[in-house]
Structures are given as C-alpha cells and as structure tokens.
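Bench notes, afternoon.
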Amino acid sequence: MDLKDRHALITGGSQGLGKGIAAEFLRQGASIIICARDEKALSATRVELQKLAAPGQKILARTCDVSSAEETESLVAYALKELGSVQVLVNNAGIYGPMGPTETVDWKEWTRSIEINLYGVLLPARALIPHFKKAGSGKIIFLSGGGATNPLPNISSYAAAKAAVVRLMETLAEELKPYHVDVNAIAPGALNTRFLEQVLAGGKESVGEAFYARALKQKESGGVPLEKGAQLCAYLASARSDGITGKLISAQWDPWEKLHEHKDELAGSDIYTLRRIVPEDRGRRFNDQ
C-alpha cells in the first residue's frame, strides 16, 4: 500500500473522478478528507467509501466552496485538526461552465467558472503550502483537462481556466522545490462523467457539431476508465514519485508507472510541460535575413 500513513485532502470528492480518487487512496492505505458543495451527495459518498476503510483509516467529509477563501481556510484548518497532518492535496473540483459562443454566454456564469476552476485550485494550495513548507515535504496534484493543451470552442471559460491551472502548477513547482513539495497536474482523458452529460444535454447548438459528435462517440465507447486517472493520482501522491514536479502527465497516454526511473532526465527538460513552439521546432526558419 503506497499511501499507508498518508493523509490526503481531495476536493470535489463526492462524485465522478474525485470519488474514484478517494476510493483508490483508501485502497492504498491513506486516510482522507473529501469536500464538495452538495452536503447530501457528500454524506452519501462518505458512507459508501467507509466500506473500503481498514481499521485506523479515517474518512472525513466537509462541505466547502473552494472558490471561497474563507471556506477553504476553514476546511484546511479542520483537516489539520482532525488528521493531525496532511501530506497530499488533490485539487479535483471543477465545472464546465457556460457553453456557447463566448460573446453570447452569460458573463456571470463565465466568471463563476473561472472562480471555481482556477481560484478553486489556488486557494486550497495557498492554505496548505505553509503546512507543507514546515514539514519539508508535500504533494499537490492539479486536475487538468483538454482545454489546457487544445482550444475548446464554445467552452472558453473552462479552456482558459485549465490552461491557467497548468501554468500555475508549473510556477508553484518552481517556488516549492526548495521545500521538497512536488506539484504536478494530470490529464485524466475523456471520461464519461457528468461533464459528458452536460455536453450532450447542451447539444451541437451549444458546443458545435464536431465536439458534439466526439461526445456521442465517447458515450458509445465508454470513454477512458476513471481508474486510470485515480491510479495516476495515487502514484503522484506516493513516495515513488518523489522529485517529479512541474509536469502535466496524461493518465491515458504517458508511461507514468515508471516515471521515477527517468526522474533526473525529467528534472532537466521541458518534457510534459506547456511551451511555445517556434519555427525551428518544425524544421523551418523565419529569420534567414
């Protein structure tokens, strides 16, 4: 059990991938605290997860809007009080936000999506960083999405926030290296969660014909299993991944199970990072004058 004796805070843990991550962490020996905004769903998930707990493992649940600094600070204080310490933060909470041409969607909904998807990962990290620094170690895991590496027409707030999340991850990774706090992001792949149902409910009028067609195909194929993303999160939360930091890793496509074997090479490269592509990267030169 790679996570034995580790304590993890998992945001958005009442359903979907967050719930899957919580279950995987329990199976690997961790004690956890999950949070979400829906108290009823959170309570039901806690009861369900309790069945996976071994003697001595704690499962805590607390409602929290992670876009609220006050609520997030209260959540972290509660976690530290009840668990004694926290070694891992998984920033999973997120929403798709409004769908449709950017100039037509409701502005309040657009900004609300930014608050949850971007502020909602920064605030838990800010609240826990002093604890990690004092401990001289820690793990912070951000959930990225397709919007981080590709345009998402008609889902612009989500795309913009997810790209910002990855750059935030890379920045915090540099800030926290002296304290041995590893900060990474994962791309879990195309999951058949409530996000997919929202796309299908919105229809091609909201997200465009191409994206809607891909969503239909994903629904039929079953999508990427939740377990892949959950297992990658567990790997990044474990001691095996110590020293791997500042990376965006795909649960579906990258050979993450053996990344620790390439730790030194990764540390000195831009592999698994966002970067600007210049003409020379594509075998061209625009400055021959």
